[in-house]
Amino acid sequence: MRLIRAARFAGVAALAAGIYSLLVLRPVYLESVQTPHPQAAAEESYWQWELGGWLWLLTIFSWMILLAAMKHYYSPVHRISTNTQSGLTVISATLLIVGVLVGMNRFGLRGILYGNSPVETVAAVGDFVDYVALTILAAGLLMGGCVTTWICVDLVILNKLPVTWMVPGAVAGVLSFFSPILLPEIRHLLVALLAYCVWCIVLGMRYSLPAAYLDLE
User: Fold this and answer.
1) Residue 33: is its pLDDT beyond 80?
2) How far is 42 from 148, CA to CA, in rounded Å?
3) HEC profile for 52-112?
4) Beta strands in 78-165 (DSSP E)
5) φ/ψ (deg, to 5) at 209
6) How far apart are CA 126 and CA 102, in angstroms?
7) Whole-number percent of the chain with pLDDT over 70
8) φ/ψ (deg, to 5) at 103
């Protein structure tokens, strides 16, 4: 996939996941804990939560494609740093995928336990799933933010792409870097998502990109 198409795909996926999460997932997440009909709420929330999870998995996949396309066109393959960036991308994507998959089971487990277990047990299971999912996601966001910022700065240093094109991506990466400290607070991630979407728009709106010159070190 060409870099411009990859940026468009990544931008659309991120916007879809972000808008859906803000409008659907977060209100459901907060309201489902206190409801007069917990089992019905859990069943309804399950499908909403599942759809949101699949949208974020699509976003992670499109992010990998974007970085891969960018590195394929502009990063010299022979460098150790290029190979390290590829490895970090795979590791961070794996952590993010696992974190999303764990989080997707939150309401499914609640739906199974409602009516069969004490309220305290149900709440404890939900809290445990949340804790595990957030821990894995924080690790993935940390590494993903690092590699995204690294690639943006690297391509600027190599004079492959303009600084103004890479700034939004670097901002998104730096903000994601602080996730292990700030989660479950998500305001920094909302700004990171906005910066990431701006980055995708900046790249995706182009009809052509600078030529990649052989820049052997």
Assistant:
1) no
2) 36
3) HHHHHHHHHHHHHHHHHHHHHHHCCCCCHHHHHHHHHHHHHHHHHHHHHHHHHCHHHHHHH
4) none
5) -120, 160
6) 11
7) 78
8) -65, -30
- Measured CA to CA, the distance from residue 60 to residue 62 in angstroms comes to 5
Closest CA relative to residue 52, chosen from 27, 10, 17: 17
Instruction: Give the model's pLDDT for residue 165.
Output: 93
Contact assessment for residue 109 and residue 129, using Cβ atoms and an 8 Å cutoff: yes
Written as six digits, the tokens of 20 are 């859906």
Q: Taking CA 28 as the corner, what is the angle to CA 22 and CA 33, rounded to the nearest 5 degrees? A: 140
pLDDT tens digits, one per residue of 175-188: 999 999 998 888 99
Dist. CA 211–CA 217, nearest whole Å: 18
Prediction pTM value: 0.84
Structural domain boundaries in the chain: 1-205
Q: Tell me the pLDDT of the chain averaged across its residues.
A: 83
CA distances from 206 to 7, 8, 173, 188, 202 (A): 10, 10, 22, 28, 7
